[in-house]
């Protein structure tokens, strides 16, 4: 399951002041049914604030706030209930997981289709991405449909921030995923010309007779270029550093 979530995470890193809101519906994770989240991103220069709200998570209603400051090289994760924050370097050398190293090279295929449609009045082109991974005792298939567009206010600001973010994490390695594979996947996805206004992701794992399927759908619901206050990208007054067990 952790391998599944990490590979799915890679697709999420894809990309005047810009605010956009996305709705995400996920199915098939740990049999929890549909999980619906609203994600709001605020971008201003080298700063981004992300607010994630879920009304039907396994833990009940929850909210997550992160502030990415590329100018400072950090990400702040805010605990709005306890008024605490956790600071993480953007260029952390690796993500700590207990995954075993993988020894496969996945087959990655990206196709640009002739189909187009409008999302929030933005003309979008359809792309299909497929990855087949031979596991030790089975196979993993990842299929993603992306509708990308670029003729809208704020496009350049979004893509500029995303490129800087990619550059900042370029040296990052993830245990359980060969660094060459990670970089190749980043490179191939970066070749897609445009910003994803809508995405559908399906992950299927067939291993020793056991089948696991995860689906997620994301669509941009709102997009604006209203000026954003610098305070949005600062730690609110009264917040204290979060203490992590074993780091004192």
Number of strands: 12
Output the number of helix runs: 3
- What global shape is seen? globular
Please write the string of helix (H) and strand (E) elements.
HEEEEEEEEEHHEEE
Distance between the termini: 31 Å
| Poorly predicted runs of 5 or more residues | 1-15, 93-99, 174-178
Compute the gyration radius: what is it?
19 Å
Proportion of residues in helical segments: 10-25%
- Characterize the main sheet: 12 strands, mixed
Task: Summarize it.
With 248 residues, the protein is mainly beta.
Plain-language structure description:
- This protein has 248 residues and is mainly beta.
- It is built from 3 helices and 12 strands; from the N terminus they run αβββββββββααβββ.
- The chain has a 12-stranded mixed sheet with strand order 7-8-9-10-11-1-2-3-4-5-6-12.
- The protein is globular.
- The two termini are 31 Å apart.
């Amino acid at each position: 399951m952790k391998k599944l979530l990490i590979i799915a995470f890679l697709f999420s890193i894809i990309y005047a002041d810009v605010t956009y809101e996305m709705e995400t519906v996920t199915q098939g994770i740990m049999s929890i049914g549909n999980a619906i989240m609203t994600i709001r991103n605020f971008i201003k220069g080298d700063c981004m604030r992300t607010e994630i709200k879920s009304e039907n998570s396994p833990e009940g209603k929850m909210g997550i706030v992160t502030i990415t400051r590329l100018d400072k090289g950090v990400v702040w994760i805010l605990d709005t209930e306890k008024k605490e924050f956790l600071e993480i370097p953007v260029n952390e050398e690796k993500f700590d997981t207990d995954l075993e190293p993988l020894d496969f090279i996945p087959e990655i295929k990206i196709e640009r289709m002739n189909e187009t449609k409008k999302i929030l009045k933005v003309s979008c082109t359809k792309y299909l991405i497929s990855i087949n991974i031979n596991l030790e005792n089975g196979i993993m298939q990842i299929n993603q449909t992306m509708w990308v567009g670029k003729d809208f206010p704020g496009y350049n600001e979004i893509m500029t921030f995303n490129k800087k973010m990619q550059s900042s994490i370029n040296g990052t390695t993830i245990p359980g995923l060969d660094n060459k594979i990670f970089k190749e996947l980043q490179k191939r996805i970066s070749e897609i010309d445009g910003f994803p206004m809508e995405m559908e992701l399906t992950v299927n794992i067939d291993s020793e007779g056991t089948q696991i399927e995860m689906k997620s759908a994301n669509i941009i619901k709102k997009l604006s270029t209203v000026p954003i206050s610098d305070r949005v990208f600062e730690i609110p007054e009264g917040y204290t550093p979060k203490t992590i067990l074993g780091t004192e």
